[in-house]
Amino acid sequence: MRSLSRLVILIALSALLLDACSIYRVAVQQGNVITQKELAKVHPGMDKLEVRTALGSPMLQDPWHPDQWTYVYSYKPAYGRTEVRQIQLQFKDDRLQSISGDVKAEDPHTPQG
């Protein structure tokens, strides 16, 4: 009986030690998620308030370049490579001049499938 209780204790301790060795990783998502559909709502000539209403506040707003807004999004899966997307908006006289970055606006004339 004594050897049986030792065996049970040994198995329980082994299970606890092995469980402590496992690592749980969490997927991390940060920044502004801007879809093609949302970006299609924005076009040159819009003022800053209209752009902020359509896309939300930019993640980065440089105090030395107030006419440049940067929307950044990153996704780090639990196991794998980090995906980073960036969209830059340039304004002149509080009007949107240009859009550049990794996400392109969806063409409204393209058929949806």
TrEMBL record:
This protein's record includes keyword Signal: yes
Domain Outer membrane protein assembly factor BamE: 31-99
Superkingdom of source: Bacteria
Chief location: membrane
Cellular localization per UniProt: Cell outer membrane
GO CC entries: Bam protein complex
BP term (GO), one: Gram-negative-bacterium-type cell outer membrane assembly
Keywords attached to this entry: Cell outer membrane, Lipoprotein, Membrane, Signal
Alphabetized GO MF terms: protein-macromolecule adaptor activity
Family (UniProt): Belongs to the BamE family.
Subunit structure: Part of the Bam complex.
General function of this protein: Part of the outer membrane protein assembly complex, which is involved in assembly and insertion of beta-barrel proteins into the outer membrane.
Protein name per UniProt: Outer membrane protein assembly factor BamE
